[in-house]
Amino acid sequence: MEADMAGSQGATDAPRAFSRIAVACERGSGLLMLARFALMFAANNPAVRLIDIVSNPASLFPTLMLSYPDWSEAHRAMTHAASTMLRQASAELARAGIDVDTQLLDSPALHIDTAVVLGRAATCWQADLVAISSPSRKHHWACHFNPEEVAASTHCPVLYVPNSQLSTEIPRRARVLILVDGRHASLQMLRAALPSVPADAELKVAYVIDGLFHLRTWCPRDLLRRLGERALEAAAGVLREHGVDARTTLLETQGELDDVPDAISREAKQWKADVIVMGLRSRHALSETLPGRVASRALRDPPCAVIVYPPAWVAEKLAQTIDGPMVATGMEPPPIIL
Known about the structure:
The protein is of the alpha/beta class. It has two domains: 2-13 and 171-317, HUPs (Rossmann fold, 3-Layer(aba) Sandwich); 18-166, HUPs (Rossmann fold, 3-Layer(aba) Sandwich), CATH 3.40.50.620. It has helices spanning 31-39, 57-60, 72-95, 107-110, 114-124, 147-153, 184-193, 211-217, 221-241, 260-271, 293-298, 311-317, and strands at 2-5, 18-25, 42-54, 99-106, 129-134, 158-162, 175-179, 202-209, 246-252, 275-279, 305-309.
């Protein structure tokens, strides 16, 4: 099910787009293209920090320690290469009039996991967006960054772009797929995300009906569909607040082996989405640092770029705004955790 909606009144107290962007790539590969792509979601005159993390060579190639136990020379070579890439990328951005600086983090010297190092660096610099890129999970042995861990360790939105999309040109951002689940936190995420979405992008807001929830709880499928429709109606109200035109779509999992992340990936491929936007939710109230099940799966092998918004950041940005309408369903939507 799809519907069109149009807004006529913009929000006057909406948060700004991103103004301090930290950009980090695995071994500096694609750093310049990733920075340019992240700038598409930025406010006017943003500050950019390019970050490269030098990992312990022994952790990247553990089986080679038996034949080459002294990794100091390899470590120096990696540090020199990272410094060179940072200088080249920063010079290119500076010529375009971007306020940019660089930071080289030595993970072996700090004795800290790379995701934690990046999270701390972004927090100290007060970044409001962290853009990262790394190879797919099948090449995890060569990764500096695990996007799931970065999303859990940072306290601001994370833009993850698969390394394969940075190989030839800057990724497109013409189509943006936004996921909602009907909860108040999801609608707040939508409010926080809209100001950073490019004005010329085509938007689609989607809700996924989890068929497994129907099988587990014997909840009538018609009720799940109605809850999804009401969630999209609430999202339509948020879009009207911001004067945004968008389509809505009600998705559904297919079969017992299909789940919500699969439905999201399938829709992104069919619609040819360039960016997926979703919120982060912890699995349990006592583990808020953990990424949510759906967002965690979406970050593993996405068909396009993904932006995830942690709930604490959303609440902080919207602290001065008036809460929008909640989903008046009389009951909570099914626990499709983002």
